Structure formats: structure tokens, C-alpha cells
Amino acid sequence: MSSSELHCIIDRSGSMAEYGKPMLLVNLLRYIRQFTTQHSKSTSYFSWREDITEIFWLAEADVELPAAEDSSDIASLCSWSEVNSEATLLVLTDGYFKLNTEQRQLISQVDNLFFIGVGGDADLAQLITLSNHSYRAEQLDHVLHTIWRPEIVAGGPLNRVDLAGVIVENESEDDDEW
User: Which long-range contacts (CB under 8 A, 24 or more apart) does 159-162 make?
Assistant: First the structure.
């Protein structure tokens, strides 16, 4: 998957205000901003609670989180994923939301959806049932590299090197042994 646009959706339900999740979330967002800036990737940030609304931060300003309260509306995430099928969706959540059977089926069929389980109490079991792209917060770097990995061309290795020959060619009698 190598979509040019990343939509980072931040769960702002009440459970995201517990157990140090706000500071972890700020640090994850700082990392995403640094990574995408260094790799010239297009990223938009969205707050998810009752609905999904875009967040704008100045480039020189630090991350500021909207208030966390109530519960996140899973129906809005379902409709958002349908409308934004061309973008890669990265959802930062603890996974504490209720889904009905239809919503669970819809979410599990979205192949451009990545979940990052935020917090030590994140419900990774639920997130894994929703997507094969579900990870713990400490795997964020791996996820970003997975999202933007270069397309691999089918075929054999590009170049083979005989290391035994290289080592013999570079040895000389004047080399010091360490």
C-alpha cells in the first residue's frame, strides 16, 4: 500500500483521557508529523468523537489535542472510510468502542485502514478482529514505513555479489590484523 495521502484519525472519546494516553498520543502525533515532513508525505489530521473533523496545526506549533469526552461514534468512522477510500486511514485509538455486526463487517473489509492501539490497556484483540493492519503504539515507525514502502518489482535479485571474491581481492600482505 503506497497511498500518497494519509488521513490520521485521532480517537477523542473519554477513555483516551485515561492512563497517560494524552501524552502518548501527543508524542505519536509529533512522530508522525516529523516522519511525514522528512519524507515529504501528505498528511491530514482529524479528530474523531461524534463525527470526524479536520484539525489544523501550524507547522511551527506543537500538537494540541481536542478535549476527550463521551464516546466515539463508530458509524461516523464507517461512513468516513467509505467516502475516503482513496486515502490511507491511520486510526489512533484504544479500541474501546462498540460495533454492531454490520459495522464490524464493514470495517473489516476496508483494506486501507490501519489501527494503532494507544495505551497499555488498548483493546488490541478487538482491533485485530477489525483489521490485519492493527499494531501497538511502539510499532508506529514500522507502520509508517509499511504504508509508504516502495513498490517491489517482481523478479529476482537486482544484483548478486560474490563476497568471497570481494574479500580475497581486498586482502593484501601489508594489512594489519586487528
Answer: none
Indicate the length of the chain as a whole number. 178
Element containing residue 134 per DSSP (H, E): strand 134-136
Q: In angstroms, rounded to a whole number, what is the distance separating the alpha carbons of residues 107 and 130? A: 6
Predicted TM-score (pTM) of this structure? 0.78
Helices (H), 39-92: 74-83
Domain 5-170 CATH superfamily: von Willebrand factor, type A domain (3.40.50.410)
DSSP bridge partners of 113: 89
- C-alpha 9/C-alpha 6 separation (Å) is 9
C-beta of residue 6 within 8 angstroms of C-beta of residue 39: no
Q: What's the distance, CA 111 to chain centroid?
A: 13
pLDDT digits (tens, 9 = 90+) for 8-47: 999 988 888 888 889 999 999 999 999 988 888 889 999 9
Give the integer Cα–Cα distance in Å for 95 and 114.
12
Residue 154 · residue 140 · CB < 8 Å: no
Q: Is the pLDDT of residue 57 over 70?
A: yes
From residue 153, give the alpha-carbon distance in Å to each of 88, 93, 150, 157, 160.
22, 34, 9, 10, 16
Report the percentage of the chain scoring pLDDT > 90: 26
Q: Position 72: which residue type?
A: S
